[in-house]
Design a protein that fits this description.
Length: about 110
């Protein structure tokens, strides 16, 4: 049985990202949640394959992770946190989950 990997980052979900997650089609939901989990267990979520820095200054510290036709927008807030007796490297703030369209980045 493979060893269970623990999260290195505490997940903070914005109201927008919660609404987006609730609207995901069931067949896409698992893939998107697995991508978010991959970010949470990574030493450096910004170095995970498929993560890109957003270039617009209004998204200065934000990144996006590609998952099929979905884009997962997030940012990292570093700084050790202890929550429910578990130590985290900081927070991963889930900003939004959007379907990739021509207007996604406008």
């Amino acid at each position: 049985m493979p060893e269970k990997q623990t999260h290195k980052w505490l997940l903070q979900i914005t109201k927008k990202s919660q609404e987006d997650a609730n609207e995901l089609p069931p067949n896409d939901r698992l893939a998107v949640f697995n991508s978010i989990r991959e970010l949470l267990i990574a030493e450096n979520p910004y170095a995970v394959q498929g993560v890109k820095k957003l270039l617009d200054k209004k998204f200065q510290n934000s990144r996006r992770q590609e998952q099929g036709n979905w884009r997962i927008f997030f940012m990292i807030v570093p700084g050790e946190i202890v929550h429910l007796k578990h130590q985290y490297k900081g927070k991963l703030v889930l900003i939004a989950i959007m379907r990739r369209t021509e207007s996604t980045y406008n």
